Amino acid sequence: MLKRIACLMLCLMFAASAVLLVGCNGDGDESAASEGSSTQSDKDFSNEVKNWGGETITILGYKGEFAFHSVQIAPEEQTGEAVNDAFFERNSKIEELYGLNIKCVLPESGQDTGVLIKNAVMGGTTDYDAVVAPLYIFGLYLPDDLFIDLKSINNGYIHLEEAWWDQALQEQCSVNDKLFFVAGDALVEDDEATWAMFFNKQMYNANADLAAHGSLYDIVKEGKWTLDVMYEMITAVEYSTGEAKVWHPTSDDKWGMVGQFLDFYLFMQGAGQTLVDNSGDKPVLRGDSEENVNAFFAVAEVLYDNENVGIAESHVSWADGHPYQMKRQIFGNGNALFMPNQLAVIGQHEISNADISFGLLPMPKRDEAQDYYTSGVEIYHYSAIAIPTTTVGAKLDATTYALEAMAYYGNQIVNPEYYERTLTYRRIQDDESGEMLQYILNNRTYDMGAIFNFKGGENMAGTLGFYTNLIMNYSTDITSQWESSVNSFQTGIDNFVEQCY
Fold this sequence. Notes:
By secondary structure, the chain is an alpha/beta fold. α1 packs antiparallel against α15 (393-424).
């Protein structure tokens, strides 16, 4: 895995009532988490200054449930919300300096971004110059030959090697040495969809057995934040008001952790394991590798502990309520020590209005031998950028110039506001939080098995649901499950290779 030098300038000066946070997306290592770099100036922008005469770049977006799905492309106005206004300032600067107008088009009710872009490309229309969509959309539609290989663009206007583009995504999601979608500092919902570990500071400090471990932040920095250490802490939380713990927001029972089925996949990625290895010429299945199987049993030991770990879907069906909302309420009510989730939940009311003090940690390593912490992403909300094959000639030049400017000035203007918002939004105010964000965001893992959900047919379960099928039944029989699924998974990969290679 390529490493990048962290480009977050994190100077936390809460005592002086000032916070300066400058970040960039991509891949990094643990040593980078203690480093920083000075902010770039306009002279570091990779492209020559050019005025495009008021050219409009139309970007098809999507309607997401988090705050910035359209704002990150083109906010309609200044609202007083810091991140919204930073994006507005970014686009205004691009218009002022380069004569490029960024326009966002969202699907109407009942429309789907993937279907819209497919119909546009297949129909030969030029309605959209670029598209921003969640990763799963690209997983579904990439084989339809809708998007330009970004590595093939040689007009000199897009510079994918720069730090404001996510290097890990490029490395891990290239297809036959071609790259069809990219993320980076042009957006923030890629960061928002990154998985992290929330912890209740008050519960941790009030429990003598837990507090004896010392600072959780120090444990992370020493490289000792592992599944075993986390599980020891989870089992130290023992409080029930009745004969058995009740999983409900109105109960005062305490849990070591609350989570959801998808956490299994994200814990595996935190343990450095993916179902698909994309480091060679073609994607290769590796779910039955010794390292993957060993990590599975380590994760299962934690998530299958019904006495101490409350998994949302195991307690409440979607027909009876909103299990994820209830999970957030339990944590927000102060009744769980840990809650793995994507960073975006910081802004959801169950957490933002909670009366607890909470902090952020990276997902735990498998063990101390693991080189660095790594975070997976949630493919239904992680947004990336692609350019449809109908964008050609002078319009392609203007589009790539605009995307490069969006990423560069996103790094300059938006990131400081986004990181400050994340760190200071409701009780995440301590000197170590910025460093924890570096651990979380600088080492991300992208599993093609999740993004492309390889399977042999429409009615078959794919690689994305492999761990979900196991945890739904609290099964540890990974060998049998793999043997019964591997032919379908391989068929999916074979079909993908035939279509994309």
